[in-house]
Amino acid sequence: MPRSTSALAAAATLVLASAALSACGSSSDASDSGDLVLGASLPLTGPLGVFGPPIQAGYEQAVDAINADGGVEIDGESYQLELVVKDNKSDPTVVTSTTKSLVSEEEAVALLGSVTPPMTIPFSVVAEQEQVPAVSPLTPTLAWLAGNESGWNYAFDVFVDEEEQTAVNFQASDLVDTNKKVALFTDTGEDGKAMGALWEAQAAGFGYEVVYRAEFPVGTTDFSQFVQEAQAAEAEVMIAQVIPPDAAALWKQMKALGYAPKTAWAEKGGTVGFPQAAGPAADGAMTFGWWSPDNGNVGGQELYEANKAEYGDGLANQAVISAYAMVEILADALERAGSTDPDDLAQAIADTEDLDTVWAPITFGEDNRAIIPPTAVQWQGDSQVTVWPADQATGDLQAPPPGLAK
Amino acid sequence: MTGTRRTAALGLALTVAVTLVLWSVPGRVDRNTQDLLLNLLIWIGVAQAWNIIGGIGGQLSLGHSVFIGAGGYTSAMLLLKTDLGWPVALVGAGLVSAALAWVVAFPLLRLSGVAFTIGSSALALAALAWMVTWTWTGESRGLTVPLDAVPDREAKFRLIAVLAVLTCVVAVLVLRSSFGLRLMAVRDDERAAAALGVPAEVVKRRAFLLSAGLTGLVGAAVSLNQVYIEPNSMFGLTWVVTALVMVVVGGSGTAEGPVLGAFVIYYLVNRSLEDQPMVQAILSGVLVIVVIVVAPRGIAGLLRSGVAWIRGRRTAPRTMAEAST
Amino acid sequence: MSAEALLNGALLGGLYALVALGLSLVFGIMRVVNLAHGLLVLLGAYAAVLVTDRIPVDPLLAFVIVGPALFALAAAVQRLLLQRLTGHSAEAPLVATFGLLLLGQGTLTYAFGTSPRSLDAGWAQQSVSFAGMTVQSANLVGFLLACAVVTGTQLLLTRTRFGTALRASAADPATAGMLGINIPLMHALTFGAAAAIAALAGIVYGSAFSVDPNGGLPLLVLGFTVVVMGGVGDVPGTLVGGVLVGVVAAAVGGLVGPVYSPIAINLLLLALLLVRPQGLGLRLPARRQRPAVSDREVVAA
Questions:
Q1: Which residues in chain C are contacts of B133 at CB distance < 8 A?
Q2: % chain C with pLDDT above 90
Q3: Residue A232 at interface with chain C, using a CB cutoff of 8 Å
Q4: Which range of residues forms the domain containing residue C248?
Q5: Which DSSP symbol is given to B63?
Q6: Which residues in chain C have their CB less than 8 angstroms from residue B109's CB?
Q7: C132 in a structural domain
């Protein structure tokens, strides 16, 4: 009966595969050791891969520091923390599967998130479904909030509020004398659309006028005619929100075509490693930042200095700090909750008020957001210097950006 | 006659048995194993559905991401805009995907070989570019399915198990039917098949519709499982490229190949190594190359040669010859 | 939208043609769809990064080292890996090159990280003005190089004994083999040359834009688009295809908005496939396992 072979074979494989999985998939030793597992799903590879390693470093260093200090004390007993990191390849589908396996396989008591709404929303959705508390750094909070209309219960987000963040571009541009004309280059990514709308809405309030806006698909390389149009519109403030390779192409073309606005913002794309990506043209490019030595943090400067060798002087290092603070928040909440019960822990996180961390004082609002005040940073050589607000500045704004003006 | 009937009865019994085993999984294994099986079953569904047109039909479609996306978005939109519930959303997703396939088949199936492959990928890329700008479906922000409209963990698992079994049953039925014979004849030599009176385009169109409809159903299940969907992960080429690799590694054009391939690629490579991304990327590349060098006809081909060798034959029977016995 | 924008797009098409030419040659001569072609472009750029990090020369000069290195690597891969797979099925080499893409992507991520890198070339950050129009010099350099490489390849294929042998081995491998043409050698040389051209494209691409380890697939898709528009195996057609892609992207970008450029390009590609599938040379079903009579006039004669 050769005709039935394929059916038989298919069924047999299905059963065998299931059996193999049941046999070898179930053993997990994490829970046996008595350590509390914190699970992190991070973009270590893929388009967002630049953000994964500094976040991982922040989580690791915080866990090590807390463990060295005796661990977390819950109801009179000390527990060590154990960090489990899984790569989500910058793919929302993989975020879902890795986060689920962090809960079911690693039995994580709490989850640690990463960057951008496309990563953090599916991550937070799993937290809600599995009812495990989760905190994320580096995800703009309004977009995150909009990701679940029924409101977040177990998931929390600590980062800037986009309305404050998009205001920074205008507030910091006030440091130099410009004609207040703005050109916007945004991509079709979720954040490109949202921020683009906010810049357009907010410009007038700060006395600026958007004279040119172009919207690009992710992966655009040829910006020349749009650069020329922004130039023709005499925009002296240029704000771009595109991914890193596109930002590199855009900056090189601005330089080639001689477009040197007074302030040039490479949001998202110029956050990390921009000098390697765009070459000398990157010098002077600006982005918003989220930490400064004088923003009210406790112990942040020390951590920042310790990570300078590996993560440089700039936003990669600031990402280390943000991630570190997530573990501080969880450790504090675990001790206050006095148990690892998810509901108690979520409640304790929600109750966090004015907690001193390496990042900034943390307080969660009703909507599970903790808002961090944004700053403005500028690439000067291989460092990103905080240039705004004035009382937190670590250097002076260079305008027009030397990389484009020369 | 009795032989055919006995085979059919055996096949039915097998299907029922496998379904029952999978049906009883929730509650009997720990959550981790259940999650793992769930993802594996999704991949089996995607790979097997692709196998119908790509393997059995020999039309290497890179456009199937469109049907994952169409299925996922249809079900998400139905759950967001109506109160019809997920079973209706699922059926709607399958129908919309099949209807979409019916429309795009007009241009696509006029192409064959590499032209079809490139044409289908162009279609998928155009669809992706459109979806990130389409305001009605949430453009690049994506959609979040209301959590209370999603079936619970057990129901979701059983649904996906049934879908995976369904795709496998359909693949077996296609392989054993005269329709499948015509499809393989077209795959192996379109002109010769036409000369023998096989209407190539009709046969390919049916296989394409069947494959797309099943892919749409799995896409809907993906959106129920994910809850949050956005264009790049639903319409991106990752789905179809991974399915292609699974099918070829497992054994293209066989019923067991996609199952084997999904197991090897999803479980042995992706899942086991997700905490070591660099090793995973490099190893999956090496594995794909090694498998294709050692077994150019996939693991299923290798196994069949092994079985044939044990039976004392010198070479494995070819798919065509075997199917027509 | 201005004439300037169209001219820039057309010149940029030269770079697109450079990216696509190797893909076209490999498919035209070897019947292999090389999914790792975009990776070869990336390898060229990354290898040039390594060279220019050590020796401060213009990235284009680094081609003297990078070109031969990639030629050798690719020829070896063809002889040791892909050669074994020809004759099994059309999918086998396809899947093997996909494995190479994964492997290369992983290795590049491991070696260079996921952040984009770029080459610092003076000519890539200037512009040239003539007749009241300003174009980027990077696009001009890419276009001139593409013209030179396309012309050279075409002359080699049509005017030399070697080219004749190559075309013969493409049209009818069995007969060519009997006539004493060393087919595996021909294929190794073709694959190597395709890689060297890809490396040159990578250097220009990395200088004008930037590269990152995930760029292999997008570059491959770009290559396919150009190849199909120009006609597979049609060497001068590659330049036509590249320019067409550049001009259409610029025109749609200027008239409707850049968001619609990829939609327009992909729909145009599909339309071209439908309207002129024969004329574009894509007449071989991927499944065909024995050479047919119609294979003969695939490579432009």
A1: 259
A2: 64
A3: no
A4: 3-125+144-295
A5: -
A6: none
A7: no
